[in-house]
Request: fold
Amino acid sequence: MRRFVGALRPLRNLTLSPVPTPLRVLSTASASSSSASSSDSDSTTAAAPDADFDSSEFALPPSGPASQARNPVSALRKLRFDPSLRARADEALFGKERDGGGGGMVEAVEEERSREVALALLEAALEPPDEDDEVGPGDVREEDQMSLSVGIVGAPNAGKSSLTNTMVGTKVAAVSRKTNTTTHEILGVLTKGKTQICFFDTPGLMLGHHGLPHRDITVRVESAWSSINLYDLLIVMFDVNRHLKTPDTRVIKLIKRLGAEVNPNQKRLLCMNKVDLVEDKKDLLKVAKEFEGLPGYERYFMVSGLKGKGVKDLVQFLMEQAVRRPWDEEPTTMTDEVMKTISLEVVREKMLDHIHQEIPYVIDHRLMDWKELKDGSLRVEQHFIAPKQSQRQILVGKNGSKIGRIGIEANEELRSIFKRDVHLILQVRVAKKRSA
Reply:
């Protein structure tokens, strides 16, 4: 047994990966000390002296291509098996060598051959799928391009932003449980092969008791009503789970009004969202039967915009409805303007998750600085401008707890979306009072 333990002794040299450094809690003291130390650093990466959140205060794991050391192919290439170790182990276990003749050499050759086969199979498994049949966006001639504009409308909090983000494949609109999160139309572009689909996520529409828009409806919602006929295809969405529990007459009137207004130049879909929350799936058929008689809808889809269920079938149907015309947008991966919009939307979403009541809707949110640094990372500075000092205190929280949590979650999501390090700086200010 001692000889067997000695044969396995080389395994003691193996080491485990280090545990990532945990995030540190943001405090007023740490923020002030960071401001003092940043004066000696590069001016391009220094935060504002009165920043309420600075991502450099947190020990975040690197976001670059950090998995090279964990690449199984490179690890397998570095593996060199020593046949003498096998012989020593066999001798310790069985009391003698398994093959005292030339069989050991044959076994070593077979071992090496098996290792080469395993390496080839592993490399083939890790290679990306062949894309010879896929057409790159830059290879599509203008006369072959297909395009479709899709408007997504519905009652507030129906999940329009979540569906937009899922279909486009990245975050373009803020997602929150609060109503009227979207304050303007946000364009998401999906380019696949020769087809481009432009999604317009509009503010939530609201109907009064008489089936007409409220008199106190805001300008942005009036704009949504006037623009619904401008799209090639219109998706009318509602929360089917909420509809089954407590039917909302406003939603019913909205669906029936749009279904009754037939537009020969526009196709319309009825989209039942949040089907993953419905326990008895038979109830979905009851809802589908409730609206099946409306003439304005081409067909209906049952989806979960947040979980992605049914979204693939919806996107496939939309791709088939595209018409032959030049694309409206450049099929770039992600322009600076798109990235700036995404950064604002992500931070806004986190603010809506952590700040309640009416405060998020009275705060002005601005992008103050956007800079790509020499190391490839991004420096993003955003300011929140609150009308009152009390509102600023609520947003900042005790010892910066609220704005710290908002900044941490937003910074992690931006790093995930942009695939690079992001230096996020958030500052909460109070609006200056206008002189009479």
